[in-house]
Amino acid sequence: MAELDLNAQAARLARRLEAIPATVLEALRPAVVQAAEDLAATARSLAPEAEGDLKASIVVTPPGAETPAYAEGGGRRVAGANQALVTVGNPEQRHGHLVEFGTKPHVNAGQFAGTQHPGTAAQPFLLPAARLTEDRARRRIARAIGQAVRKAAQGGGHA
Fold this sequence. Notes:
two-stranded antiparallel sheet; 8% strand; two-stranded antiparallel ribbon; single chain; HK97 gp10 family phage protein; elongated; mainly alpha
């Protein structure tokens, strides 16, 4: 299965949506947020059980809001006007990527410097959740766009 190129998909979608009236974008946002909530719920259900802290760090950032610290490459990001972001991590839970992708055997640093770590097996939860929810999200968003465009065409919106 081809890897998801989410940035390229988001850029294509952003270009296509720039031409749509603001009323249609307003109608689209709830569908985008609901799709993200579905993805987050699925990721939580697939995340491995520990104390539940990793699961609790899976959150949705709605359009215009800022992601939690450490969620995206160690920094914060503001979701675009037509985006809802699903992130894993917070200041206390910074290991989601290690769980998702696993680790190779390595020599430890820090508190356990010099000891050998055997590595950990990958326990994917976020990418599988994205794959499982992608088709439904596309249908939900397409339906919301279609309904909003029809409503705008019928004079129900300010196009």
